[in-house]
Predict the structure.
Amino acid sequence: MEFSRHGVMLVIASPSGAGKSSITRRLLADQNNLTMSVSVTTRKMREGEVEGIDYYFVDMAKFEAMREQGKLLEWAKVHSNYYGTPAAGVDQLIASGKDVVFDIDYQGTQQLYEKRRAEMVSIFLLPPSILELRQRLISRALDSKEVIDKRLQNARIEIDHWAEYDYVLVNDDLDETCDQVTKILETARVARTRQTDLSKFIKGLQSQIDSL
Ligand code: 5GP
């Protein structure tokens, strides 16, 4: 039996290279009801990235205008670039029972906690070791050595925030981590506070008792 409900705002954060993108991709492929929140960024588009799918790529002037006009639910500077979550659409999706996954850093997560704590479930992914993390960053061959070094330094700061998340998972097996994330999402969906028709159902049960 299913009740109508609010969607889950699922935040998945990790230092880059800990498997967040692979897990999010799988989750989106498996879960019909799940949508990705597409951020805006001032970062240059990488090879293979698609406008509107991976990010909305904007210049600094456009980013600042969106921020000033309150069009961003949260924003942060990460690795010398700016990133932000457009507010448009997210609240409608959540109210209509659609789940939304956010790939944002700890600064963005903190801002979402301030604004939408009741709607959120947050997961922090850790790599099994820093050696493994470095290897993953090198083998995906997306960044120069300097960028990789910067990402590793940033990983230190990011990891510092582990205790701010609802769940912390060590991603040493992609399948297993995906299963765990799926279970967390499924559990969040049935949280009492998200079930909008529950009180009506309870009243119905009570009136059935009364009429016995
Ligand atoms: P990348 O440049 O590798 O795509 O992303 C770098 C980092 O920026 C990742 O850790 C990602 O989680 C974070 N990020 C991406 N979009 C947003 C956003 O909208 N807000 C915040 N706060 N962080 C973001």
